[in-house]
Amino acid sequence: MADKIDYGTLMHRAMRGLIQDVLSGVAENGLPGQHHFFITFDTMHPDVEIADWLSDRYPEEMTVVIQHWFENLDVGDDGFAVTLNFGNNPEPLFIPYDAIRTFVDPSVEFGLRFESHDEEDDEDEDDLADEAAPAAEAKEKDAEVVSLDKFRK
Question: What pLDDT digit, counting tens, does each position of 63-77 carry?
């Protein structure tokens, strides 16, 4: 038995389950209302499946938008597959939940951010609690955080 409860891992598992549930609902019923998602993921994750030209263009991370045009959304236990349009070129993607760095629904100011396990080991409990906070309330930790106001109409 472990010496302590790994709350960080347990919370990440629960948050990824939430993403799976949300995407499953969208796969079955489409996007409700004004909901849409910005999903940033690690393109170098070993289970990510994207076209070579996309991984060449985005060698570390990539943000995709699920909003107006998407097809073949297939949600599984380990990740989801979706076809998105890149400059009138439909491209199939497979994104494992473990590769997701951020999941944001700006229509309701909701967001999740996943830190790597190396970074988590250095964080205190207050920082871990911030990960589950809505994006509008989360503390800014690095230059990659983008204000939701940039995407509002």
Answer: 999 998 889 999 999
